[in-house]
């Protein structure tokens, strides 16, 4: 489901569409290994998933800004809000804290224990310094280590 939140005109009157598509990210590994399931908000306007298998773009039609050249490093800020499940592992900032998007930001779970973790959270993007949220999406991450 696409959550198109805003169309935003820049100073030169070029329009961009801002959206985040919620997504489920799962990583299941055999213990003893580390399992990771994260969403990565990229400074260049793309959205990736990160697992122990590597990183991959979720879907170019669901980039957080289209066209991507409307993304400007340091012009936006991001925050997450946890709705349920485990606390996120090493998020870039505390929950509900806006963080300037000057580097790629990863939100989700990573652990090396013999159990599973899950988290449901919203990621939001807005212009730097405040204003209305331009895009938001709900992400579900699941990371499990199977003991054999």
CATH topology: Immunoglobulin-like
Q: Quote the distance from N terminus to C terminus.
A: 37 Å
Structural class: mainly beta
**Shape-level CATH architecture:** Sandwich
Query: What is the average of the pLDDT values?
Result: 87
Widest sheet, order of strands: 3-12-11-8-9
Q: What share of the residues lie within helices? A: under 10%
Strand content: over 45%
Tell me the number of helical segments per DSSP (H or I, 4 or more residues long): 0
What's the β-strand tally? Answer: 12
Give the class-level CATH name: Mainly Beta
Number of domains: 1
Q: What is the alpha-carbon Rg in Å?
A: 16 Å
In this structure, how is the largest beta sheet organized?
5 strands, mixed
The secondary-structure element order is EEEEEEEEEEEE
pLDDT under 50 segments (min length 5)? 1-13
| Dominant shape | elongated
Q: What does this protein structure show overall?
A:
This protein is mainly β and 148 residues long. It has a single domain (3-146), classed as Sandwich (Immunoglobulin-like). The chain is built from no helices and 12 strands. The protein has strands at residues 3-9, 15-20, 23-30, 35-41, 47-51, 54-57, 65-66, 76-85, 99-100, 105-111, 116-127, 135-146. It has a 5-stranded mixed sheet, with no helix packed on it. Strands 6-5-4-10 form a 4-stranded antiparallel sheet, with no helix packed on it. A 3-stranded antiparallel sheet has the order 1-2-7, with no helix packed on it. Strand 1 (3-9) and strand 2 (15-20) form a beta hairpin. The model is unreliable at 1-13 (pLDDT under 50).
């Amino acid at each position: 489901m696409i959550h198109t939140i805003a169309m935003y005109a820049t100073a030169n009157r070029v329009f961009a569409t801002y959206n985040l598509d919620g997504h489920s990210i799962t990583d299941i590994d055999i213990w003893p290994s580390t399992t990771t399931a994260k969403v990565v908000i990229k400074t260049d306007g793309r959205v990736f998933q990160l697992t122990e298998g590597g990183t991959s773009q979720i879907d170019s039609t669901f980039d957080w800004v289209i066209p991507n050249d409307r993304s400007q490093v340091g012009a936006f800020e991001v925050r997450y809000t946890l709705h349920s499940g485990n606390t996120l592992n090493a998020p870039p900032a505390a929950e509900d804290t806006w963080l300037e998007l000057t580097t790629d930001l990863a939100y989700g779970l990573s652990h090396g224990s013999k159990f599973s973790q899950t988290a449901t959270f919203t990621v939001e993007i807005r212009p730097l310094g405040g204003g209305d949220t331009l895009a938001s999406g709900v992400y579900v991450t699941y990371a499990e280590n199977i003991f054999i």
